[in-house]
Amino acid sequence: MKSFWIVLKFEILNFVKNKAYIIATGIICALLIIGISIPTIRDTFFSSSDDPSAEVPGQEQQFGYLNDAGGEVDTETLESVFIGGKLEEFQDREELEEAVSNGDLVAGFVITSPIEYQHILQNNEMYGASHFGFEEAFLQTYRMAGFEDLGMEYEEVEGLVNAPIQRETVILGTDSAANYLYTYILVFGLYFVIIVYGQTVASSVASEKSNRAMEVLVTSTKTEYLIFGKVVGGALAGAGQLAIILTTAMLAYQANRAAWNDQLDFLFDIPLSVLGSFAAFGILGYLFFLFIFGALGALVSRTEDVSTSATPITIIFVGVFMVSVMGMQNTDGMLLRVASFVPLSSFMAMFVRVSMGSVANWEVALSLGILLATTLFTGWLASKIYRMGTLMYGNRVKITTVIKLLFQSNEN
Amino acid sequence: MHLEIKDLHKSFGSTQVLHGISFEVESGKALGFLGRNGAGKTTTLRILMNLFKQNKGEILLDGKKFRVTDHQVGYLPEERGLYPKKKVVDQLVYFGELRGLSPKEAKKNTDAWLERLGVMEYRDKKLESLSKGNQQKVQLAETFVCNPDIVVLDEPFSGLDPVNAQILKEIIREQIQAKKLVIFSSHQMGYIEEFCKDIALIHQGKIVLKGSLKDIKRTYGMNRLTLRDGVRTKEELKEILQNSLSSMLRSVEIHKEQLIIELHPGKEKREFLQRGLDLGLDIEGFSVYEPTLEDIFVDKAGDVS
Fold first, then answer.
1. Using CB atoms and an 8 Å cut-off, which of residues 67-86 of chain B contact chain A?
2. In chain A, which segments carry CATH 3.40.190?
3. Which of B102, B150, B160, B207 sits between 20 and 30 A of A234, alpha carbons compared?
4. Does residue B141 sit in the same domain as residue B273?
5. B284: domain range?
6. Do B39 and B137 share a domain, yes or no?
7. Residue B305 lies in a domain
8. Per-window interface: B 95-134 vs A, CB < 8 A
């Protein structure tokens, strides 16, 4: 057991002393601090303390229109109810089009009847919305004229049609909508550390094989200690990095809370039960995948081959992430329910269900039990594969070949 | 300590590499494990180090099953390998601790061995920045850092220049004097002759010769004599002997600047010497022929197959 701690210490120090680790953590933390401090920076440098009501700098958007419908449309009303910028009347279509072409106008409109108009613009964009404001004002003008013809007050009708309904929500289960963002952040954090550290652990094993240090290592101590030390070391380094990043984000938010008007409080107000399930499922899932990556690293002889060897499991892992993220829209979906018990995906899928849906305690316990047993089994198998792969140099060894050899050697 | 390798068999797929290897080694003696490339030396040592599992056979230490992790074993693998991107001191301390030393002891031993091998100045450098010879010395420091009772060296002299080879020779002598159990494989006969009282010669996965080197040499030299004449060349001497004393001689041959003669069974050295003097030979040297290990090696493992 002492050897496990020695390997663990060595592996953690490898990460912590690694410049890439330090620089990456530093850059992420710096970006977070800058991002979270933006409202404070804006308030400090871009707002005038003399005039608090000063508008945000920026020019008012210009629009133009040509009325070909004559007196059928009340252009005075149209201009007064238009709120998307400044709306100016043109007398000539060519002039209007030229102003649009020159970029003087965002868009132009040619009114052909009280309910028909042409929308003139230079380039059409996928999500172009330059006609929204005009259309709203045009419709309102039409309605106002219509109600007036009927002898009705438009304001009264408006009060009836768009009555301000008051709603108060009482949630008996889980508030998925509010939990969505922090669940997404935690799931993405887990995805990120597993992908990054999985590759790192696989490369580390492969490099020990390629630089032949493995031959001395396996004669010095038990392979179980070597692979467990390496995986747990990688896991702790990743968890440490994630903790540093989250703590930095929290501290930066605390310092900038006033500028945010407490809008992000919900992100840092995660219930303990959710944090607990994230810790339990996250740690086990993390170890589970790192064991797989470690074993895959032992099957290749060169670090360049690691990515090829790890591709299938990476694809599965990305699939698990997609299922979990899509499941966040509907936590009672069958796919997410099944995924929450399959060891490859349960660590993420069950966490999503716990965090955003309603799930019975026995389901959580069962899923956790299956994941724990599978992780231990994977750890054992990884140590055997690691041992088996030690002296298999040359081409990449197929996992099926190793498992076959493993059973053969157990029989002997 | 008494280490016994008994009847080891090993196959890789359908190819049988070892066909029943057996030999013994004792503390305070070094065993030279000889063989041509591909004879099975490294496979045998890897089985000893529990890197491979034998198909049949056993390894015993003082009569009990030998488990490498239960003992302090210094192993220098044929394929040298450490961490190129790590500092020399960090990795040596790591290996020392893995073999049961306390951090303090591991540091102390690391410094002592780096000093002993003349690479102390590279203590805090990354391994990859060292020359190949110095990396080899760091590997040797790694082998001895745990102060092993059993030392297994697979081709230890390959890659060392004469000065470094001299340092390693001194270390191996010290290990033998300190009653360590030393096994080293090599195909460089000179080194084996320098240190080893016992040898085991492996050829095509079988032990073809083993035992005390002195006895083996004596047996090989039996009935063979070397002869040197003060005035005649070897060729002239060979011609005289073949013409005048052929009844006593089984063979006369020139081998590496020496004239080697083999007497017929039952013929005495004394009688041969008298007959030679009677012929008027100016005998300057006359001795029992002692073959070199290389001669024995070529004889036993020299077939082209």
1. 68-69, 73, 75, 77, 79-84, 86
2. 62-156
3. B102
4. no
5. 222-299
6. yes
7. no
8. 95, 97-99
Q: How far apart are CA A234 and CA A220, in angstroms?
A: 21
CB contact (8 A) between residue A216 and residue B68:
no
* C-alpha triplet A292, A297, A299: angle, nearest 5°: 100
Residue B151 lies inside a defined structural domain of this protein: yes
Q: What is the CATH number of the domain that holds B122?
A: 3.40.50.300
pLDDT value of position A174: 65
Whether residue A216 and residue B81 make contact (CB cut-off 8 A), yes or no, is yes
A412–B99 C-beta distance less than 8 A: no
| B31 and B6 fall within a common domain | yes
Distance between start and end Cα atoms, chain B: 37
Note whether A219 contacts B68, CB cutoff 8 Å.
Answer: yes
Instruction: Quote ipTM for the complex.
Output: 0.78
The bridge status of strand B64-65 relative to strand B56-61 is: antiparallel
B153 & B235 share domain: no
Q: Which residues lie below 8 Å from residue A325, measured CB to CB, with a gap of 6+?
A: A184, A187
Residue B217 lies in a domain: no
Contact A75, A87 (CB under 8 A): no
- How close B68 gets to chain A, by Cα (Å)? 7
Q: Per the structure, how many domains does chain B have?
A: 2
Q: Which of A210, A220, A405 would best serve as a mutation to test chain B binding (most B beta carbons within 10 A)? A: A220
Which of B159, B180, B212 terminates a domain? The answer is B212
Per-residue model confidence as pLDDT tens digits over B107-146: 999 999 999 998 999 999 999 999 888 888 899 999 999 9
pLDDT tens-place string over residues A350-370: 988 888 877 888 999 999 999
Which chain A residue's Cα is nearest to B128? A211
Contact call for residues A345 and A237 (beta carbons, < 8 A)? no
% of chain A beyond a pLDDT of 90: 26
Where among B212, B247, B275 does a domain terminate? B212
- The first and second tokens of residue B152, run together, are 């297994």
In a domain, B90, yes or no: yes
What are A143-188's pLDDT values in tens digits? 999 998 988 888 888 888 888 888 887 877 666 666 788 888 888 8
Report the top-level CATH class of A62-156: alpha beta
If asked whether residues B185 and B244 sit together in one domain, one would say no
Taking the C-alpha atoms of residue B96 and residue B94, their distance in angstroms, rounded to an integer, is 5
